């Protein structure tokens, strides 16, 4: 959840066009990752990728990092593969793969929207600093997750 919220927060910090582009790229690529997971295609350790996503995305929010549009999309897409793969691997045997996948993609979109909503405080007095602090907390959680994954 922290990675999904961070995508929305980062998009809100970056503004247009990334405020809408990042929350579209992540679920789309996550669905591809889900298909890879359902198919059992081997990829590098998923837990490490997910932990790194929380650490890196939190760090990007903390630093209010402003990469080129293409780079931001690649970063988000890279981590989306791991999140989707994890969902695909966890597909319950009795579940409909299409419905299950649609559910996690839609839920991810809502988490991005919540992150964008929270990110609107950037224009309030002290809001940018509050967002950066939130990014720091997310990055700290990511570091803890990474320690557990190792």
Question: How would you summarize this macromolecular structure in one to three sentences?
Answer:
By secondary structure, the chain is an all-alpha fold. It has six helices and no strands. The longest helix has 23 residues, at 97-119.
Provide an overview of this structure.
This protein is mostly helical and 150 residues long. It has one domain (2-149). It has helices spanning 2-14, 18-39, 46-62, 69-89, 97-119, 127-149. The longest helix is centred in the last third of the chain and has 23 residues, at 97-119. Keywords: Membrane, Transmembrane, Transmembrane helix. The chain crosses the membrane at residues 25-57, 69-86, 98-118, 130-149. It comes from Polymorphobacter multimanifer.
Find the count of extended strands (DSSP E, 2+ residues).
0
Helix content class:
over 70%
Q: Count up the helices.
A: 6
Catalogue the unreliable spans. none
N→C terminal distance: 20 Å
Q: Describe the biggest sheet?
A: none
Order of helices and strands: HHHHHH
SS-based structural class? mainly alpha
Number of domains: 1
Q: What value does the Rg take, in angstroms?
A: 15 Å
Mean pLDDT across the residues is 94
> Beta-sheet strand percentage?
under 5%
- The geometry reads as globular
InterPro entries: HupE_UreJ (IPR007038)
Protein name: Urease accessory protein
Keywords: Membrane, Transmembrane, Transmembrane helix
Transmembrane segments: 25-57, 69-86, 98-118, 130-149
């Amino acid at each position: 959840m922290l990675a999904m919220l961070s995508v929305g927060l980062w998009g809100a910090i970056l503004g247009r066009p990334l405020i809408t582009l990042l929350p579209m790229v992540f679920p789309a690529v996550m669905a591809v990752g889900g298909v890879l997971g359902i198919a059992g295609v081997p990829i590098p350790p998923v837990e490490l990728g997910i932990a790194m996503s929380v650490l890196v995305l939190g760090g990007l929010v903390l630093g209010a990092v402003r990469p080129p549009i293409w780079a931001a999309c690649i970063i988000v897409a890279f981590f989306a593969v791991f999140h989707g793969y994890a969902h695909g691997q966890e597909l319950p045997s009795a579940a409909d793969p299409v419905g299950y996948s649609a559910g996690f993609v839609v839920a991810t979109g809502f988490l991005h929207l919540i992150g964008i909503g929270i990110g609107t405080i950037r224009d309030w007095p002290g809001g940018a600093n509050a967002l950066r602090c939130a990014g720091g907390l997310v990055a700290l959680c990511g570091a803890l997750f990474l320690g557990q994954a190792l």
